[in-house]
Automatic annotation (TrEMBL):
It comes from Knufia peltigerae. Fe cation binds at H238, E244, H279. InterPro entries: HgmA_C (IPR046451), HgmA_N (IPR046452), Homogentis_dOase (IPR005708), RmlC-like_jellyroll (IPR014710), RmlC_Cupin_sf (IPR011051). This is homogentisate 1,2-dioxygenase. Its cofactor is Fe cation. Belongs to the homogentisate dioxygenase family. Residues 11-181 form the Homogentisate 1,2-dioxygenase N-terminal domain. PANTHER family: HOMOGENTISATE 1,2-DIOXYGENASE (PTHR11056:SF0). Keywords: Dioxygenase, Iron, Metal-binding, Oxidoreductase. Pathway: Amino-acid degradation; L-phenylalanine degradation; acetoacetate and fumarate from L-phenylalanine: step 4/6. The active site is at H194. One of its GO terms (molecular function) is metal ion binding. Residues 183-324 form the Homogentisate 1,2-dioxygenase C-terminal domain.
Amino acid sequence: MDGQDWTDARVLAHSGDASMKTGLKIYIFAITKDMKNAQAFSSLDGDMLIIPQQGALDIQTELGNLLVRQNEIAVIPRGIRHRVTLPTGQARGYICELFQGHFRLPELGPIGTCSLANVRDFQVPVAAFDGTLQDGRACGNNREWQVVSRLDGHLFSCTQNHTPFDVAAWNGTYYPYKYDLARFCVLGSALYDHPDPSLFTVLTAPSYREPGTGVVDFAIIPPRWNVMENTYWLPYYHRNTMTEVSGPIIYNQDECCVWNKGLEFQPYAATVASAMACHGAPEDAHKKAEEQTTAPKKVSTEGFTVFLLETECPLRVADWAIQQFETNGVATATVHGTKSNL
Ligand SMILES: [Fe+2]
């Protein structure tokens, strides 16, 4: 929204407790401004999975710079300070803040050694020291910086007399990274019926409670070939035990594409389907699917990919989102959820 920056993300839904390191929180951002000069941000609550829907984010982090375009995602670990600017104007998207554990690639099981998201395609920044050389020595700039931190859902700030981006070199296993979703190697049925959408998982955060369950799975339904024969092509209308949050990611980079004009997708729009709530393709899509042939066909070619955040945690939806749904209906937000006081 006009006048908002990276520190103005709004909570869409949450479960658990950051102070107990359980559960997650899902934010939506729709921003038009760079963060202030000499201002940095970090979440002390959890790792941030950033899912741009539209626009690009230039993210300066303590461990280097990440330019994250639409159809790319980024992960910034808990406590890593960063500053977000907008190289192409406004940006919209989603943040999944994970209170427990870390995001990782899913176990591939019988798939074998590769496909889905491959390790080789994740991009990690190199150090980018934001200071100057004085008499042959590296010095952090000496202006005053404001560091904004989110702790237990609340923002705090402090100042310091030097840049937080003062890392000249680093190594280790705790770092931000990005991934181009166009590199996701989609697998699917080559004959009939539908594998579970967990086959589209890009990143997962396993639960400690029970093997095979996840605090959250991040999955995408991107362009792909559909080659199933003599079977129904749409996902089944269904209920399940996971709670699902979904929304569009625009992969068409052409600014003339209708999706990039900001007219079709409303800011802050998302779908939330609580555990055991019925959901699936609408009736008109069902009728269309019944009439079409099942010859091999490239599907989801409209210019946007649907992402899914599937969590075993029952999500509480923010009051503002419930009110938007009650006021504007499905055009702005589709919510099959639990009201809460956020
Ligand atoms: Fe579902």
